[in-house]
Amino acid sequence: MRKIFFLLFAITMTNTIWAQSPLPKTKNDITNLPNDHFMIQLSSDRWLGAPDSIDSHRKGFSRGANIYLMVNKPFKNNSNFSAAFGIGVGTSNIFLDKMDADIIGVTRVLKFNSLDTLERFKKYKMSTSFLEIPIELRFYSNPKNPNKSFKVAVGVKVGTLLNAHVKGKTLQNAAGATIVDYTQKLASRSYFNTTRLAATVRIGYANFSAFGSCNITSIFKDNVAANMSLLQFGLSFSGL
Questions:
Q1: What are the residue ranges of helices labelled H in 40-125?
Q2: CB count, 10 Å around CB of 223?
Q3: Pick from 104, 222, 229, 236: most CB atoms within 10 A?
Q4: Is 216 part of any domain?
């Protein structure tokens, strides 16, 4: 029901805006100029608040990708500023070494199992994807030409969980020798917080910017695991 609510809300708001009759253009009209209506973000991800027993098993380059379609509304009294909102999908992949997470378990607490001396997967990750509604307050140093403008944006995004799964590739023994080359994927949302709220910031020039996002809500439900939140930082490409 939450996913349906978010999707209907986004579609309704978008249709309301685009259904309005266009206003006559003036010499200084900037409403139809490119204003970051399409945004792609590539991030480096980590869990803030992870206990040492989990953090010590992080491996490699944990990463995420976000893609959004945005509506930008410049302020009438100051065109350097605008408000924007949209809809999109945010993903995150956290890689673990010699550890697995029993997300399909039936215990009250989510078990993260250390596998230092046991069979384990050579590559193992926990992945989540969210349907999100981002909201931003934007500043453009040159609103008449955003593609040659210094840009700053602060905001929030709220999301609902679409999918959560763990994925392992190539089963190995304790010595690191391959037992069997196969892929295992297990999906369950039972331990995860299905609603996400995050604070966001972007700073850049033209179509490229650095961005950061930090969850205000915990990744997992209360009393299921440590109170961990997702931190993403990386590069953002925007245009159209």
A1: 52-55
A2: 8
A3: 236
A4: yes
Task: Please give the Cα distance from 156 to 137 (Å, whole number).
Answer: 9
CATH number at residue 42: 2.40.160.20
Whether 115 is covered by a domain: the verdict is no
* Pure H helices in the chain: 2-18, 52-55
**For 188-240, how does the pLDDT look when each residue is reduced to its tens digit (9 = 90+)?**
999 999 999 999 999 999 999 999 999 999 999 999 999 999 999 999 999 86
The pLDDT tens digits for 92-144 are 999 999 999 999 999 999 999 999 999 999 999 999 999 999 999 999 999 88
Into how many domains does the chain fold? 1
In a domain, 150, yes or no: yes
22 falls within a domain: no
Instruction: Quickly state the pLDDT bin for 145 (edges 50, 70, 90).
Output: confident
Sequential DSSP letters for 102-136: -TT--SSS--EEE-TTS-EEEEEEEEEEEEEEEEE
Once rounded to an integer, what is the mean pLDDT over residues 12-36? 49
Q: Give this prediction's pTM.
A: 0.85
DSSP designation for 236: E
Domain of residue 69: give its range.
2-9+36-96+127-161+192-239
The residue ranges of DSSP E strands in the chain, in sequence order, are 38-48, 63-74, 81-95, 99-101, 112-114, 120-140, 150-172, 178-187, 195-205, 208-215, 229-239
Q: Shortest CA distance to 128 belongs to which of 183, 198, 70?
A: 198
